[in-house]
Amino acid sequence: MADQYAQSGEDNRPTEIPAIRWDEPPEGPVLVLLDQTRLPAEEVELVCTDAPALVEAIRSLAVRGAPLLGIAGAYGVALAAARGFDVDDAANALAGARPTAVNLAVGVRRAQAAYRAELVRSGDAGEAAVAALAAARALHREDAEASARMAERGLALLDELLPGGGHRILTHCNTGSLVSGGEGTAFAVALAAQRAGRLRRLWVDETRPLLQGARLTAYEAARTGMAYTLLTDNAAGSLFAAGEVDAVLIGADRIAADGSVANKVGSYPLAVLARYHHVPFIVVAPLTTVDPDTPDGAAIEVEQRPGHEVTEVAVPQAPATGAGGGVPVAPLGTQAYNPAFDVTPPELVTAIVTEEGTVSPVTAEALAELYGRARQV
Ligand code: MRU
C-alpha cells in the first residue's frame, strides 16, 4: 500500500540544520536563531542581542522544541552576562517564557549556576560571563552527543521489537535538527533506520495548529532522501486501521517521575490508537527532559496558547489578515481550546529511550533507577 503514495521530495542540503549559534561581531555578542516561524518558505536568521528578544523568540516559537529550548535558555543567560545585564532577572524571564518543556529551566539554571559560582570564586563579572558561555556550549555539545546515542539505542529497540526491518514509522510534531544540538530525538532514530536501510516510510502528522510536522519535519525529511508522507492529524486512525504503522516515535517536553509524557497535543490520541492496534509507542528524549521533581502527569503544567492559532492558519507565504497575523478559517469571535501539549500516561508508553538507557516497561522505579544511575556518574 505504501508505494501508491507519491515519492516525496529530496534535496542535497546537509541533514544537520544549525538552529542556533553564538556569534561575536564587533558590536558585541549575539545569539543567532533560524526563525522557525518562517520555515519552510524562507530561511531567515533572527539575531537576539538581549534576553527579552530571546524570550519573545521562545514565546513566538521562532526557537522551539524541548532540547533546543534548554540550549537557547543557557545561551540567553550567557548573553545577558556578556552584555552586562542583570543575570538573575534574565534567567527568571527566560526560565518562565514557556512552562511545559522542563529543558528550558534546566538549561537556564545550569548557565546561571556556572555564572554565580565563577562570580563567587573570582569576583569578576567578565570571568563569570565566560563561565556561563562555557556552560551553554557544554550543554549544546552534550545534547548533540545524547542525540547520537539515542539514535543508536532507538534503532536497536526498533530492530528488537520489529524483526525484519522495513519499518513504517509514524511521528508527530518536530524532533530533528531543528530542536537539537545534533540530529534530534525521535527523528534521529528514524534517520538511523534510514541509514541502516531499514526505514520503509516516515509518516508525518501535520500537527495542527502550528503545523510543526508539515512545515518542519517534512523540511527535515526532504533533506535526507527518506521516503516520507504527510497526513492530517485526523487521518492517523485510518492509517493504523489499514495496518500501515509499525511503530510510533515521538519526543517529549517533560517526563514526570511516574513516566507520564507531556508532548505536543495530539500525542496522547496516537498512544491510544497504538495500544488498540498493538503497535509500539516509543518516546525518545534526553535525560534533561526527565523531571524527577514532577511526580506525575497531573502535576505537569500544560501551556495554553492563544485561540487565534486555531481560528486562523498562519502559513508563512499566505497574505496575513487575522488578529494573529494568519488567514481566518473560523467565524470572527470563535472561541478556541488550544493546549500546546497533552499528557500520555505511562501505561500507554511501550518504552522511553534516553541517551543513558531504555526504560521498558515504563515504571516510576525503572525511571528513577536510570536517572539516579546516570546522574551519579
Ligand atoms: O510547541 P513546540 O513546537 O515547542 O513543541 C515541540 C514538541 O512538542 C516536540 O515534540 C518536543 O519538544 C520534543 S522535541 C525533541
UniProtKB/TrEMBL annotation:
InterPro entries linked: IF-2B-related, IF-M1Pi, IF_2B-like_C, Initiation_fac_2B_a/b/d, M1Pi_N, NagB/RpiA_transferase-like
Keyword Isomerase applies: yes
UniProt: substrate binding residues: 64-66, 98, 212, 263-264
Site label Transition state stabilizer, positions: 173
Pfam family, one: IF-2B
Top-level enzyme category: isomerase
Keyword Amino-acid biosynthesis: yes
Keywords for this protein: Amino-acid biosynthesis, Isomerase, Methionine biosynthesis
Protein's name in the database: Methylthioribose-1-phosphate isomerase
Organism: Streptomyces aquilus
UniProt gene name: mtnA
